[in-house]
Amino acid sequence: MRLGSPGLFLLLFSSLRADPQQKEVRAMVGSDVELSCACPEGSHFDLNDIYVYWQTSESKTVVTYHIPQNSSLDNVDSHYRNRALMSPAGMRQGDFSLRLFNVTPQDEQKFHCLVLSQSLGFQEVLSVVVTLHVAANFSVPVVSTPHSPSQDELTFTCTSINGYPRPNVYWINKTDNSLLDQALQNDTVFLNTRGLYDVVSVLRIARTPSVNIGCCIENVLLRQNLTVGSQTGHIGERDKITENPVGTLEKTEVTWSVLAVLCLLVAVAVAIGWVCRDRWLRRSYAGRDSPILWMLMFVLLV
User: Fold this and answer.
1) Which residues form the Ig-like domain (predicted)?
2) What pTM, to 2 d.p., does this model score?
3) Which SS3 state, helix, strand or coil, does residue 146 take?
4) C-alpha–C-alpha distance, residues 121 and 201, integer Å
5) What whole-number distance in Å separates Cα of residue 134 and Cα of residue 103?
6) Which of 87, 98, 205, 232 qualifies as a FRET site for 247, CA 20 to 30 Å off?
7) Per-residue pLDDT tens listing for the chain (302 residues)
């Protein structure tokens, strides 16, 4: 018996009830990932004897397959066409792993790999189910400046985008690192056009003179917590910048020190000039001047 068409092979595959090996793998959105399905090292297979089939476990979507003397992949779903490949050289060595390119959030599924041998009466050689977990980093949260819709209430808004899977959102009292009551927040989480999650969380709390809170976006799969704080004093004064008075005082002291040194040098120069001038006058009366001394006095006096 020979299964010459993909349709007959798919029918046979759907009727099998094997107990496959279970594996898990994680991949970031946009990356490439390998879904492992391999026999022990040292195995060898004839590509004209084996049938290899990959499909999603739940939706039964055809990912890719290998059928001897049939290179057609017309039955491959369009979502995986040119994105899911197996290596012929690897298959000869018993490695039927699937290489999946440019991972998307829609790829988060269970993938079933099945290998049959024609020479063994289409006996199952290998059966593996690989669960693919997909993840994407959320952007650093942006916490808006608090505003006061009423005299008794403050409102904060926290936004983060392009993450996966669906996040958890927490508001934190950073004074003691305690979690605020989730009844105080209203979260909106939705899928954007890329299939990734955007989240907007609005927190409403009682107005107080000073508030120090943080917004935390948790990605459980990546074990990642992104926290950004929003500390306020009196509302309207959070952006005020006060220059450091200590630094100003130090600069002033340095300036006065430099001026004092310059004044001292001038005083010493003047004193030396007067001494030399007095000696020159005495020598001039005694008739002992020299041209060099005259030149020196001229420079000092100038």
Assistant:
1) 6-129, 141-227
2) 0.68
3) coil
4) 59
5) 8
6) 232
7) 444 455 444 545 444 555 789 999 999 999 999 999 999 988 899 999 999 999 998 889 999 999 998 877 889 999 999 999 999 999 999 999 999 999 999 999 999 999 999 999 999 999 999 999 999 999 999 998 787 777 788 999 999 999 999 999 999 998 899 999 999 999 999 999 999 999 999 999 988 877 889 999 999 999 999 999 876 543 333 333 223 333 433 444 545 565 665 666 656 565 666 555 555 445 544 444 444 444 444 444 44
